[in-house]
Amino acid sequence: MNASAAIGVTGLGVMGRNLARNFARNGYTVAVHNRSAGRTHALVEEFGHEGAFVPAESPAEFVAALERPRRLMIMVQAGAATDAVIGEFAPLLDAGDMIIDAGNAHYADTRRREAALRERGLHFVGTGVSGGEEGALHGPSIMVGGSAESYAVLGPMFEKVSAQVDGEPCAAYIGSDGAGHFVKMVHNGIEYADMQLIAEAYDLLRQVAGYTPGEIADVFRRWNEGRLGSYLVEITAEVLAHVDAETGAPFVDVVVDAAGQKGTGRWTVQTALDLASPVTAIAQATFARAASGQSELRAAYAGLPGGTRPKLSRTEAERFASQVEHALYASKVIAYDQGWKMIQDAAAEYGWKIDLGTVARIWRGGCIIRASFLDRIRAAYAADRDLVSLLGEMEFAMEITDAQVPWRETVSSAARRGVPVPAFSAALAHYDTLRAGRLPAALLQGQRDYFGAHTYGRTDRPGAFHTHWAAPGRPETTA
Ligand code: NAP
């Protein structure tokens, strides 16, 4: 067989098939392979006219079809399946070849695989791909890890098949080993937070303002024209306006209120705990999904006393809706900021040099959190590469200042009326934590020293101190 393929894709499920077609439609010759050959033949039969495909039945045939240095993309389930496929193909490759894992791998697995394959002279390119089935075909957001050397070869290809916004590709090199998969994981965590915040805004408009789903769809359509304009707000309006054909009821009222999850939000929260990175809005959004699924517990306690819900007049409801817009926006800034800070914390831990503005740039298209808002984040990091928080950027700071009263009014209205808003509350508490100056953590340190002699620092001099709590009055000692 002629080694004519610029790239090979193995694993032709939902994502692999569409990514292979995307490469072919962009003029690349693509070798295609699947564990069960049926999918390979189906792809070529159905979409062969879209470009140049080289179907391969065996791993050896597949590898022989690839130009050197070989570029072999794996698109299978994360975990054991990915290890099995690497184990099958790595022995067939030569030094300098590249294995691209475009599945949703955990970044720690990517780091392990990269180190092992580097020993064998192979480039392992952990690549986060966002945008689902449609994105894979028409242009995803692509977050690339691995060596800079491999990106020099693969970058132009990824940039060509990715989503394009204002003439710029939504694909970029993120950093070494697991950086691409890490950033993809945080993208999904932010997505959880954004979705939960939107859902809480909906709940408040329904429970407090008394709007119907159709009216709330109109509110979201209006918001989509402004600073909240985004794919998620746009589809929220569509979902809320949808009427169930069978019953004539609002679609949202016939859906079981237990949210599913595939696990990347959970990974974000688990990893954040290890990094001591307080992504509280993302965590609350993840726990809110878990809580929604505890149907027995919820059924047992439904109807317990809570707040009161006086009916708002039309004018009051409109005023309330405008407060919720501020609360949603301010909470969204905090949730995104937490995600970016988590990336900074991981970069410090793993020695990644991540350009934070680039992350915002490649999320403007192709992925679920795509939004005009990301242009602003990009500009903030372009103006100051070392920006620690978006709250340090003047425009964001001004917006958060303007949101103070309506944001707090929204969260306190929710508490008074007994409407759960865990993500709004977490975002506001995070903001208050940052601005507090002094936190009750000093008392925690006292408690820790009392029961465990864990020592504490003093505000008036350096060092670690311990107080003899059993004998009050005895002087503290330096640990
Ligand atoms: P899928 O439709 O279920 O396809 C899975 C593919 O993996 C099939 O081609 C299957 O081959 C192959 N496979 C599974 N185990 C294998 C093994 N042990 N050895 C060899 N091949 C094996 O999955 P998908 O939705 O395309 O997802 C693929 C990856 O993309 C996953 O990591 C997923 O998390 C990620 N991802 C998915 C989305 C999405 O929206 N679906 C978005 C972003 C990322 P057979 O045909 O022989 O079973």
TrEMBL record:
Keyword NADP: yes
Function description: Catalyzes the oxidative decarboxylation of 6-phosphogluconate to ribulose 5-phosphate and CO(2), with concomitant reduction of NADP to NADPH.
Protein family according to the UniProt entry: Belongs to the 6-phosphogluconate dehydrogenase family.
Gene3D superfamilies: 6-Phosphogluconate Dehydrogenase, domain 3 (1.20.5.320), N-(1-d-carboxylethyl)-l-norvaline Dehydrogenase, domain 2 (1.10.1040.10), NAD(P)-binding Rossmann-like Domain (3.40.50.720)
Lineage: Bacteria, Bacillati, Actinomycetota, Actinomycetes, Kitasatosporales
SUPFAM superfamilies linked: 6-phosphogluconate dehydrogenase C-terminal domain-like, NAD(P)-binding Rossmann-fold domains
Domain 6-phosphogluconate dehydrogenase C-terminal positions: 180-470
Protein name as annotated: 6-phosphogluconate dehydrogenase, decarboxylating
Record InterPro entries: 6-PGluconate_DH-like_C_sf, 6PGD_dom2, 6PGDH_C, 6PGDH_Gnd/GntZ, 6PGDH_NADP-bd, 6PGdom_BS, NAD(P)-bd_dom_sf, Pgluconate_DH
Top-rank EC class of the record's enzyme: oxidoreductase
Keywords of this entry: Gluconate utilization, NADP, Oxidoreductase, Pentose shunt
MF (Gene Ontology): phosphogluconate dehydrogenase (decarboxylating) activity
Catalysed reactions, semicolon-separated: 6-phospho-D-gluconate + NADP(+) = D-ribulose 5-phosphate + CO2 + NADPH
SUBUNIT field: Homodimer.
Biological or metabolic pathway of the protein: Carbohydrate degradation; pentose phosphate pathway; D-ribulose 5-phosphate from D-glucose 6-phosphate (oxidative stage): step 3/3
PROSITE patterns reported in the protein's UniProt record: 6PGD (PS00461)
EC number: 1.1.1.44
Entry superkingdom: Bacteria
Organism: Streptomyces pseudovenezuelae
